[in-house]
Amino acid sequence: MEMPHPNRPPVQRARSPFALVLGQRLGRLLPRFGRTPQPASGDSLLDLAGGLLSLRGRASGPSLASAFFDLYEASDLAARQAFLAQLHDLYPRDRAAIGQAIAQWQERGDETAAAALNEASESPSQRLIRLLNLAPGGTRRLIAMREDLLAAPTMTPGLEALDREFEDVFATWFNAGFLELRRIDWNAPAALLERIIRYEAVHEIDGWDELRRRVEPVDRRCYGFFHPQMADDPLIFVEVALTLELPSSIRQVIALDRATLDPHEASCAIFYSISNCQTGLRGIPFGNFLIKQVVGVLCQELPQLSRFATLSPVPGFARWLGKELDGAPVPEGDALRAQAARYLVTARNGRGEVLDSVARFHLGNGARLEAVHSDGDLSPKGMQQSHGIMVNYLYDLAEIEANLFGLAELGTVATSRPVQELLGETSVKNGKNRKRAA
Asked: Is the pLDDT of residue 11 over 50?
């Protein structure tokens, strides 16, 4: 490479008209001398997005990406969402470039043509997302941007398309192979423990004392997935209770006056709360990998454990049952349990999937519906969403693949004999459901 002559002034490269215009705009938009950036309009943000997409090298990428985020975050939610709504439609795929690349592929069919076709067909929105990740804290800031998108009052076709781009990119970045499984205990940094309190989505943690009861005792565990770019902020975490038998109520797990068990005497590991922490990562499947890895860790630490199960809420049951009863009184006891079993096994959404979100998650991981309990969660939330019903899903490692095949190929929910007996009671008492319950 030719080195510059020591007595010769450096060559001044000509700047393109676009670069000159962009430079002028940046002079008005970028924060100077540490001042707080001014709120940007949607047009200003689109200018910076266009500037990033026009880059041929990466030298200016981090500074432009950082400038973009400074302006984006200084804007109000309405302006941010207005920008997002326009982005995908303003920068569509280049039809002419794609057509030319297809012609080259059809003519030559070699690796160079394949690479050109791949580059031409790339979505500008996906490229922009990757470029924005060059900014300091870019990954976390992009997750917050998708949260803005998901909070939009109306999901226009442009927003839906942009959301698919986010989900595709995040699915690659947050592949389970890139994540770190860590145990979260009482000695974890205070900032992390505060996040556990804030993120808990299943059974509310009422302050530090209750958190301590969940993570410090020897028969309790908490594990989380962490991304290298967000080392102090969990993506998802699961709380685990080591027990002698399957619990039938959440009080047995989190009661203030419960007796502590020697973990080496436990026979069951109960996953009683799984909380996704980042709204902007909705749709990225962490949970199934988390449970499987935690099972592996526990098997190594406590090889005597023989049962891995959940104590799970049934969040959609009350709403479904209300429609089924059509004003009739809510049943009690075994009759209520039977209706819950019917809901979990037979109710489907418009895509033919198991209707209940928690059931869909665990059954989709290969678990079996093991038991249905009344009076499992008597909290206001538990009564409102499920009339107090809680269930156990059992992860039998020898049957997971068969359960998955039955659900995916035959639409069959794996159930234990007690659950099958509940379903039999329902079909006898309600003839119209006999075929569905069978």
From this structure: no
